[in-house]
Amino acid sequence: MAPAGEIEAYILDHMDDEGALLASLSRDAHVRLLRPRMIAGHLQGRLLKMFCRMIRPRRALEIGTYTSYATLCMAEGMDDGAQIHSVEINDEMEPFVRPYLEQSPDREKIHLHWGDVADVLPGLNEMFDMVYIDADKRDYCAYYELVFPYVKQGGYILADNTLWSGKVMDEEVAASDRHTQGIRDFNEMIKNDLRIEKVIIPLRDGLTVIYKK
């Protein structure tokens, strides 16, 4: 069996390129930001684009813009006229994000909002075909409960980092780490929610795909 790093390299070599803009964003993030690992990255970015190709959301919501890498990937896969609202609580990211959004050919699809999603969401006056959650892991349960009424029947919720480097299986780690415990609580909530269908994809740090019945 080939090592995981070699398998990922093979996968990346046999899929679509991320393109010049996203490659530049990724390089810039690794130079300027303290936690560049938090960006979605090439493989997950192409998967998010593909999900948008398949789901074809007219209205999408992203909780946690960070560098806007995932935002740009989703917008790339959305139809003309579709809209994605991306909410980021840390407005210090705006000087990093804005130049890349302005260069994107899909910039007209993207609406950035700076602030707490609990404050922003009610004012959007939208129902969503797809929601992507990638923000504070301690608050995943709260995000889920907040957005669920705004997701259309037959819509999707995608939640990132739901394996949390495997720490979700370690009760000792969870006892002292609120981020790990937050993800564990979320996974248990999803497991027991009969209103949905769900599956965890073991991609990178875990991606949960949720379908609202």
Radius of gyration: 17 Å
What string, H for helix and E for strand, traces the elements in order? HHHEHEHEHEHEHHEE
For the biggest sheet, the summary is: 7 strands, mixed
Mean pLDDT: 94
Beta-strand residue fraction: 15-25%
Helix content: 40-55%
End-to-end separation in angstroms reads 39 Å
| Oligomeric state | single chain
Shape field: globular
Determine the structural class based on helices, strands and strand pairing: alpha/beta
In total, the number of strands is 7
Residue stretches low in confidence (pLDDT < 50, at least 5 long) are none
Count up the helices: 9
Strand arrangement within the widest β-sheet reads 3-2-1-4-5-7-6
What does this structure look like?
This protein is α/β, with parallel strands linked by helices and 213 residues long. It is 44% helix and 21% strand. A seven-stranded mixed sheet has the order 3-2-1-4-5-7-6, with helices on both faces. Strand 6 and strand 7 form a beta hairpin. It is globular and about 45 Å long. The model has no long low-confidence stretch (mean pLDDT 94).
Please describe the structure with a list of short key phrases separated by commas or semicolons.
about 210 residues, alpha/beta, 7-stranded mixed β-sheet, 7 strands, about 20% strand
Put the structure in a nutshell.
The protein has 213 residues and is an alpha/beta fold. It contains nine helices and seven strands, in the order H-H-H-E-H-E-H-E-H-E-H-E-H-H-E-E.
